[in-house]
Amino acid sequence: MTDQQHRGSAINQETESPFGASISTEAEIASTVITLTYTDPQHPAHSIEVGIAPELGSNMFRFRVGNQDLIYSERDLLKRMDFTGNFVLWPFPNRIRDQQYRYQGQSYSLKEVPRPQGNAVLIHGLVFDRAWQYEQPVITTDAASVTTFVEMDPASPYFASYPFPSRLSLTYTLTKQGVNITYHVENKGSHDLPFGFALHPYFILPGGADKTYVQLPAEAVMEADDELLPTKRVFDVNKLMYAMYDLRQPRPLDSLLLDHVYTNLHTQESAILDYREQGMQLRISASDDFTHIVIYVPKGEPYCCVEYQTCSTDAVNLHNQGARDISHLLEVAPGESYTGSIHYTLAFDK
Question: Region (Disordered): which ranges (predicted)?
Answer without folding.
Answer: 1-21
